[in-house]
Amino acid sequence: MTHLYDRQYIDGAWCATQGRDFIKVADPNTGTIVAEVTTGHEEDARRAAQAASAAFPDWSTTALDERVQIVRQWAAALTKRKQALVHAIASEVGTPLKISQVVQVESPLRNVENFITTVQELSWESTLGNSHIAREPFGVVACITPWNFPLHQIVLKLAPALLTGNTVVLKPSELTPQTVQLICEALNEAGFPDGVVNVVNGIGHIVGTEIASHPMVDMVSFTGSTQAGKAVTALAAQSVKKVATELGGKSPSVVLASADLARSVKSTVASCTLNNGQTCSALTRLLVPVELVEQVHALLRQEMPMLNVGCSLDETSRVGPLISQHQQDNVRGLLDQGEEQGATLIAEGGTVPDHGFFVRPCAYAVTEDNTLAFNEIFGPVLSVLTYQDVDEAVRLANATTYGLAAAVWGEESEAIAVAHRIRAGQVDVNGARFNALAPFGGYKQSGVGREGGAFGVEEFLQVKSIQVNLANGG
């Protein structure tokens, strides 16, 4: 049965779109068309921007405690829909159920409370000499989010934007309509004033272009590919909007000679294949000392076949399908190109089903000029490179246009020293756990700005200084 998603959420009400075309969405496990999404129209985006602009004066002056209460109500409404969200994301993105529950749903729900605590502890006003320093919202924020972590990315933008007094026009991915529907239902249930948060479905070059360039939009927060991020930035620059971007990655995992090889290989494989490789910060390049490469290859031949590949709704699956035929074709095309350029297969994961959009997890030995060594693949593909010394390891780690994430494995002081030399927004040492309060974002073409914690809140605030006369007319 094909489900039709044909409504937008604008100015506090569900409404029909002005669009007339349809986007077909397939079940990634089978390839069967299961949904149609009516494309958004430029007029839908314009109405949403106007509604957000009209709502801004009242929302921005609403007491912080009231804004916190409504955002908490949104989180409560999402929590009521927790199992539905877990199933929807597993069904639409292909994320295996356990990962969908823990990473895709439970983590962002916790993050809402993190943002609430952060804004409550924020120094909204301060004094500097004869200047009064105030932090104020930008106004209308356009939030454009991707399909790979649909709830997580929406929470990272909406929660801090709304808590800090901005109003929002959200353009989510058209490939996750069931997930977006649940999020919109929760927004509607939360009780936001009309126009404070608006959701317009559609494709990027229509809806995304309109909201990124609309004169009533004051800031754009975008997560997606580097190519699309460049286009959004150019559009926003025409009216000098602030732009925050979180873009692509080709993250290195640097194994030093002093590292625990088994642990570093196992953890790198887990990162590379998380969400079926559809993770911007995934560790997709394994850099190893040339003298240890055969041991690393042997460990990969043990680890990769243990990856059970199957339906994302099967509790035993560790790797599911890619989200679409387009994504599957793109990954396979890059693998073919890499093999033509000399990439050598080291190991593969479990056998994949003969239907749906599956790609077998794999590890390749490559040289730095191979397409698999520098292109973001967005699939469960690990590239293994060797180096002669630490200086070469650092050079290879930095030898891409990206700089989103990295890992270093080895004796702690040496690993930390190497971490400081890697040009990436976040570097994990010896498998240190993810910190949701730490700033997340990239160097180079992985983006501008930070998400999460206090740094993520500050992205949605601008600073004003008000100079006053000191006592006695000073």
TrEMBL record:
Pfam families: Aldedh
Reactions catalysed: 4-(hydroxymethyl)benzenesulfonate + NAD(+) = 4-formylbenzenesulfonate + NADH + H(+)
Gene3D superfamilies per record: Aldehyde Dehydrogenase, Chain A, domain 1, Aldehyde Dehydrogenase, Chain A, domain 2
MF annotations from Gene Ontology: 4-(hydroxymethyl)benzenesulfonate dehydrogenase activity; oxidoreductase activity, acting on the aldehyde or oxo group of donors, NAD or NADP as acceptor
Domain Aldehyde dehydrogenase: 14-466
PANTHER family (alphabetical): ALDEHYDE DEHYDROGENASE, ALDEHYDE DEHYDROGENASE-RELATED
Its job: Involved in the toluene-4-sulfonate degradation pathway. Does not discriminate between the sulfonate and the carboxyl substituents and can also be involved in the p-toluenecarboxylate degradation pathway.
Oligomeric and partner information: Homodimer.
Name recorded for this polypeptide: 4-(hydroxymethyl)benzenesulfonate dehydrogenase
Species this protein is from: Comamonas testosteroni (Pseudomonas testosteroni)
